[in-house]
Amino acid sequence: MFTGEARVRSIQKSKKLADVCYDIRGPVLEKAKQMEEEGHKIIKLNIGNLAVFGFDPPDEIVHDMIINMGNASGYTDSKGLFAPRKAIMHYTQEKRIAGVGIDDIFIGNGASELIVMGMNALLNSGDEVLVPAPDYPLWTAAVSLSGGKPVHYICDEAADWYPDIEDIKRKITPHTKAIVVINPNNPTGALYPVSLLNEIVELARQHQLIVFADEIYDKTLYDDAEHTSIASLADDVLFLTLNGLSKNYRSCGYRAGWMVVSGEKRHAKDYIEGLNMLASMRLCANAPGQYAIQTALGGYQSINDLVGPGGRLLKQRDLAHSLLTDIPGVSCVKPKSALYMFPRLDPKIYPIQDDQQFAYELLAEEKVLIVQGTGFNWVAPDHFRVVFLPNSDDLTEAIGRIARFLEHYRRRHGTL
After folding, report:
1. Confidence label for 27 from pLDDT (cuts 50, 70 and 90)
2. Residues whose CB falls within 8 Å of the CB of residue 282, separated by 6 or more in sequence, listed in order
3. How many C-beta neighbours within 10 Å does residue 416 have?
4. How many CB atoms lie within 10 A of CB 85?
5. In the chain, N or C terminus with fewer CB closer than 10 Å?
6. 251 to each of 142, 232, 290, how far by Cα in Å?
7. What region holds the Aminotransferase class I/classII large domain (predicted)?
8. Closest CA to 179 of 98, 238, 124
9. pLDDT tens for residues 204-236?
10. Angle between helices 110-122 and 138-145 (to 10 degrees)
């Protein structure tokens, strides 16, 4: 009979996760949760979760979900219900994306699930995907998790955060399979002109790259800006366009997103078969959220009231930009879209070596939660991202605390 103490084997996470991170919900957030449990009130500027800031979904899509709950208990088609996919097809026509049929549309548990699905179906070990820097970090994580290698191309802050075409050219190799285009952009709020999108399409054409287009903020536009879907610019390149209800329709928790395959599909039959296989393996996306899509896309577009003159999002964007850029040593390209700002801290005034530690110190001293710039795969510890979703009073308080923290930082480092 064994009488000694059993040796317990440590259980390790998969090695596939070695290069995977998602700092929007990372270590600094865990510290914030601990502080909340200790009784501290934290102002959270870290995540675009609209509901917690009083941005409610349109009443009509809530109503449609409720009245259809009795029909939502069974599995749907693995790609999604017919009616919402038909509505998405009509939306692609509005966006001038040609040649999209019902079978080209996949509904997912948010666009996030479909990002991972798109990469899992495509990548083999060593395959490279061009991803912007800064990026929405799920893209980098999905490439790594799928066995690929994310290669970051630079977006140029001095040029309104537009992708640097020459940098993209330098980073294309025989292993490059795809390029990710986040437009409108998270975290910078940049919106890309048609001329730039055409340049990216031409590179994809020359090098036979798949274009993954993240367009989740395509209606969250300011100052009469217009969005162009990159997939509308060519039919001889393969595009996967991702969108959903989370942001434009303030429905993050509904987890209702979609992916549209368009363009050069003839030579992608095997890849599309892989997408179909993965869609079937997860059985289906959640059914209640699917029932919100048709009404959302076809109903009154209340997002226009929020981003237009006098709209809450527009006013809060302008307020946040003014308050941030009034802080000595802080500059920020004014966003044309989305819900975020990506301000820069002048390294001569703020000699930051570790921007995650910087975020920790801001949280500890002022109870404000941000995400450090390197969490978005930016190349230097000199940026951070904030959301401008809190109401004007809370936003003023939060940025006032950031200003106070930065003043103390300048004093400590003798850079006043």
Report:
1. confident
2. 78, 113, 117
3. 10
4. 25
5. N
6. 23, 26, 12
7. 41-402
8. 238
9. 999 999 999 999 999 999 999 999 999 999 999
10. 40
